[in-house]
Amino acid sequence: LNRALRIGWTGAAAAGLLAGGIGLVVAVRPEWWVGLYTEDPAVLASGSLYLRIVGGMYVFQGVGLSLYFASQGAGTVFWPVAAGVLRVIVAVGGAMVAVLLLDMGLKTLFVPDGRRNGHFRLRYRAVDPLRRVGQDSVHRWQAKKPLHRRKIRMNHNIISSNEVKNICLEAGADAVGLVEIERKAIDTERAGIQRVYPKTRSIIAFMRAANRENVRSEARYVANDELHRTGDEVTEISRRVIRQLNRLGVRGAYVNESWPMDMNRWPGKLWDVGHKTMAVEAGLGHMGLEPSWFFILEYGACVSLNTLLIDTEADEYDNRLKRALASAANSALPFARPEL
Amino acid sequence: VCITSLVSRFGPAALAGYGIGARLEFLLIPLIFGIGAALTAMVGVNMGAGN
């Protein structure tokens, strides 16, 4: 019976190597398999966890199943079948005890937090169908009809900065600029940005001007109403821009325009993303003589700002305006600040 | 079936992740069947021949 035994073990080894090899690969790099099906971070996370645990055991599946076949050839199927039954009892029974009685399992492993999200990010090859460098800046997105039909994978694109800006201007922004997430000058805001949207790669800062004469009016209700309306518009613009970017395969979140403070964090930093910091870095305008005062040369200080966080790199980013211009603007402004 | 219903308690994302992972096993099975079917025949012949 020597030869039969040898055939059995050789076959088992071959099947074990085959299954085990595949299992090892997906245990180390589960995103290679799970990423074929999904980009959803939660699904990626649970699928990856599953393969990390189970992948190393595939070798036993290969060995076990092929030995079962060998046993069929040998005419002794009792023990393989018994082992199969035992396996089901252990797996299902163990899982039921763990999940139903002990309340363990995925739940404890998948508490959503930002650091974990980054862990399962897919790494695609760098193909960038969105890239259109040197594009005419007056290009309008509406003119290109098939945009909303294009299906593009997330996260590996580079979007044209001009295109983003045009989308914002079309949606009603008066000025817009882009900042990259790595910039040193936004170090103070990065944690907050990542709290709002962990996948942020680029930051869009935009501005919508209020009607200055309303804001400067002695009648407080006249000024207040204008500020509130402008704030509503800014939110509406933010939502429209994000939706249009979605159609281009870009995801993002917008930050609250009007009251972005979280009072639970008193006395720490109450807000996540400082709109003024972003607007200055994006080259929209300058900080005034008082740190609470932000202004733009063409529009003065009666403006409303917001910040959009998107998951895609841009081909170009903006820089802060030259300081010389800022001091010139200070003296050139026809008014100092709204009287409160 | 039992495992799937247990996983579904953790929500659709977990269920989808498990389904995607388990799919790979279903793909492995025909590969092992290929080797195994040959083993059945070869072991059977050698048993019969008294090897």
Oligomer: heterodimer
Strand numbers in spatial order across the main sheet of chain A = 2-3-7-4
Strand count of chain B: 0
Low-confidence stretches of chain A: 107-155, 326-340
What characteristics describe this protein?
heterodimer; A: 340 residues; alpha+beta; 4-stranded antiparallel sheet; elongated; B: 51 residues; 2 helices
Write up what this structure looks like:
The complex is a heterodimer of chains A (340) and B (51). By secondary structure, chain A is an alpha+beta fold. Helices cover 49% and strands 10% of the residues of chain A. Chain A has helices at 2-28, 30-34, 41-54, 58-74, 78-101, 106-109, 114-119, 161-171, 187-196, 212-215, 220-247, 275-281, 323-332; strands at residues 158-159, 175-180, 202-209, 252-254, 286-287, 294-295, 303-310, 313-314. In chain A, the strands form three sheets. A four-stranded antiparallel beta sheet of chain A has the order 2-3-7-4, with helices on both faces. Chain A has a two-stranded parallel ribbon with strand order 1-8. In chain A, α1 packs antiparallel against α3, α1 (2-28) runs antiparallel to α4 (58-74) and α8 (161-171) packs across α11. The model of chain A is unreliable at 107-155 and 326-340 (pLDDT under 50). Chain B is mainly alpha-helical and 51 residues long. Chain B is built from two helices and no strands. Chain B is rod-shaped and about 55 Å long. The N and C termini of chain B lie far apart (42 Å). In chain B, 29% of the residues are buried.
How are the secondary structure elements laid out?
The complex is a heterodimer of chains A (340) and B (51).
Chain A: H1 2-28, H2 30-34, H3 41-54, H4 58-74, H5 78-101, H6 106-109, H7 114-119, E1 158-159, H8 161-171, E2 175-180, H9 187-196, E3 202-209, H10 212-215, H11 220-247, E4 252-254, H12 275-281, E5 286-287, E6 294-295, E7 303-310, E8 313-314, H13 323-332
Parallel strand pairs in A: 1-8
Antiparallel strand pairs in A: 2-3, 3-7, 4-7, 5-6
Chain B: H1 2-8, H2 12-48
